[in-house]
Amino acid sequence: MAMKNRIMQYLSLLSIRNGDKVIEISIGTGRNIKYLNPKAEYYGVDISMGMLKRCQRKMKRLKRDITLIQAEAEFLPIKNESFDVVFSAGGFNFFNNPGKAVNEMLRIAKNGTKLLITDETEKLRLRHKRNDFYKSNEIKNPVEYLPDSCRDIEYKEICDGDLYVLTFQKL
Questions:
Q1: What string of H, E and C letters represents the secondary structure of 11-63?
Q2: For the chain, how many structural domains are there in total?
């Protein structure tokens, strides 16, 4: 239950209507999808084929349809303005080129779309600095990578400061 509460602190900021096309960048195992509107159309992107296979198995168990794509966040093989909802939860600090990834997310979002990025903060990394996963994980400030064309930019820390969440709108 504690994990669901953590996840809902950022997922509750998404507005997903019936029939919306929704994509999660760096979907990993797909843990977020089960908490979202089941009447939307879901897509997931991840660089890791292993993660995509785990996600596919999880979606099968949950009886949820999803289209999965192996790709880097910086080079999405997706048409412009394809999605009503675009979000990334937990991958941003690992992107090789965060600015390019943000531009790709904006490119595939329809005009007026609210986008969301969430990831670990420096506070969490320092608390787990002996863990190799966090030791090599450089914390990036996503606001620095937003182009001037973004509007309604909101940044806040959630989960007792362990995560940040950034929302913004494509005009």
A1: HCCCCCCCCCEEEEECCCCCCCHHHCCCCCEEEEEECCHHHHHHHHHHHHHHC
A2: 1
Stretches where the chain sits below pLDDT 70 are: 1, 124-138
How buried is residue 103: exposed, middle or buried, by Cβ count under 10 Å (0-12/13-18/19+)?
Answer: middle
Q: Which domain holds residue 16?
A: 2-170
* Reported pTM: 0.92
* pLDDT of the residue at 132: 60
As a whole number of Å, the end-to-end CA separation of the chain is: 37
The identity of residue 55, as a single letter, is C
CATH of residue 36's domain is 3.40.50.150
